Amino acid sequence: MKYLSVTALVSAWVLAAVAAEGGPVRCLTPAGGFSPAFFPDGQRLVFVRETDEGDQHLLLLDLERGKEARVGEIDAVERPAVSPDGRWIAYVAGPVFARHIWIVDPNEPAPKRVTDRAAVRSAPSWIDGGKRLAFAEGKGEKQQVVSIDPFAEKPDPQVLEKLGKGTPTFSPCGKLAAMVTTDQKGTRHLRVVDREGRLVAEMPPVESSGGISVRGCYDPAFGPDGRYMVYVRSDIQPASDLHWHDLAKDRSLGALTSDRSDNQMPAVSPDGKGLAFVAAKQGAIHKIYLMDLDPPAPASQPAK
Q: What are the structural domain ranges in the chain?
């Protein structure tokens, strides 16, 4: 396993991500897993694991003790997102064309469904300080970004029209949204906008390297202060690597991985010291890995 050294100056901080076999990258889930998300305390990680029977369960990992525990009792779970106060986990569950958004207290077995009708939904994110949930709803030309109050007695869906179409991922402060769209060829494109829909940054398009499937740019993950973003670039399936982008200057900082082992689903720790991601090393099952970032990325200043 080999990683590309990256050194970049971003608003008076330096990131040096250098990893080699036995270095600052370790496997967190030897039994497999995907869709990692950190809790605000940085001591726990929620993720999804697929069973031998094909069910997808939500699990909680204590990073210090390495102990796993199942959360809730629902199958077909995708894309968990932890609320800013750590009290709730939002996720998508259900068949592809009949999905609901759910929330669950990690200490309680019974989840709560917060959408009133089934639809094509994906990518829940907490916004407005954890008071609302935003997610993609619909498909193709009918896709839109919707927000709801998950704690209201009745759903109150509001369309965030200024963001346009795409699958959203919001920055921790909720002021920026990374939007993934898919063109007619199936290639994904990634741009970052503010809540008014104004363009902040756009990732360079991916050109095919001769493969029949170009996955493009996707799986964005903001740093804790919203000034930078990690995302996936893939020129041929299933080869993909993690890249780093300075949003303040709209410039690429290069690749964080270079082994093209289907690296995906990044998540930056709340203190900026770690990067969790999913990869299939040497053709194995997808597992969650943790890369140490030393010195850590900034976590103190809010995004402007």
A: 175-260
